[in-house]
Specification:
Blueprint: H1 2-30, E1 44-55, E2 68-79, E3 86-100, E4 103-108, E5 111-116, E6 126-143, E7 153-173, E8 176-181, E9 189-199, E10 202-209, E11 228-238
Antiparallel strand pairs: 1-2, 1-11, 2-3, 3-6, 4-5, 6-7, 7-8, 7-9, 9-10, 10-11
Organism: Psychroserpens ponticola
Pfam families: OMP_b-brl_2
Protein name: Porin family protein
Length: about 240
Amino acid sequence: MKVVISCLLFMVLGCYVFNAQNAIETSIKADSTAIVDDKYREDQFYLSVTYNLLGNKPDGVSQSGFSSGYHFGFIRDMPINKRRNLALGVGLGFSSNSYNQTLQISENNADYQYVILNDNDIEYTKNKFTTYLIEFPIEFRWRTSTATDYDFWRIYTGVKFGYVLFNSSKFNSNDGDIKLSNIDDFNAFQYGLTFSAGYSNISFHLYYGLNGIFSNAKLVDGEAIDMKSIRIGLMLYIL
């Protein structure tokens, strides 16, 4: 249900922005005296909804439910050729990411303990951890836009650096709840590769984490936890 609602919100917002930009373009074409900006930039605000996956999971760890990500920010566009269809983009944004999975995080004598729920006879209703990051995207951008064409193909690829401002973990069961925050074992600095491709305002978006979500976390048997974040979803660009 959350997936449907998120997609519907994106479609409505996308249609609104699409119609607004079409109206601007039509107005420019109708006015022969309009001044064409041959130094235009694709400075853009962006909004994104993603489905979050965990890569490199320990054996026995699985995901359940919908793990969502919400992202927004601004990217400064810097064209690097005369046609202005190639550019570098540098931005600043905020990201919230949740992961519903079967790795329980608890605290024992000031240490954190990680247990795979699939290996234990434990009934529970919720188990997830969430991260909130400030992010710094850097992109190499290719597009077919012109100074007067607001509908164009785009392919943006690059890297995104993130700093975790806050993290939390929630476990709910009939026997009791476990709520933790600012867990030291989370990697404060995270980074990964990004890829966006699409037409007009909406693009397919992919983020592939290159380093682990956790830094020194281990299962009770001593196995290191080196899970990475993978986000797949839609990106909406607003000029």
